[in-house]
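Weekly structure sync, notes
Attendees: PL (lead), two postdocs, one rotation student
Agenda item 3: pending single-chain targets
PL asked that the sequence for the first pending target be pasted directly into the notes so everyone works from the same version. It is reproduced below exactly as submitted, 175 residues in total.
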Amino acid sequence: MKKVSNKALIRFLVSALIIYFGWYLTYTLWLHPWKKLDLAIINNLIFLSSHILTFLNYKLIDYPYSESVRTIGIDGSHGLWIGDPCNGITLFALFTGFIIAYPGKIKWKLIFIPSGLIAIHLLNVFRIVGLALITFYFPKYLDFNHTYTFTIIIYSFIFLLWYYFAANPAFRKSF
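Predicted structure, written out during the meeting:
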């Protein structure tokens, strides 16, 4: 394996910081106040999670339809409210920013980024299903699992995606 030059490492870190701050400003000043992107992703998370729970024969709490309803739950539980920080948009940005900043072949980035975003989103769907089941069966463990267990799982998964991209010679340009 080639030794990474200081110049290449600095270029990567500076690129990653610029991308992160660009994303942060774009999201904070425009996308988050607009609310449509957050709600679209949350509604999709609820839609997919509901289908999985229904497939598993759980009766869901019947919430009145509204564009701003962000709740899912199994009948007999208090349900879950999905806030903006839990919809995965920040994770999408972190994942994408790393892949863009890391030296690699553009064609693989154009394939790897959407595939990774879909995988992260689906993992978030399973996270919500898991939290709904925990809320139903073991409600006192909801906070712990939301704060620690699923956070560790999600970030570990993203780290593994990054590692796979960085370590795979087919994706890489040389440093």
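Discussion points:
- The CA atoms of residues 13 and 101 lie 8 Å apart.
- The radius of gyration is 19 Å.
Action: rotation student to compare against the earlier draft before next sync.
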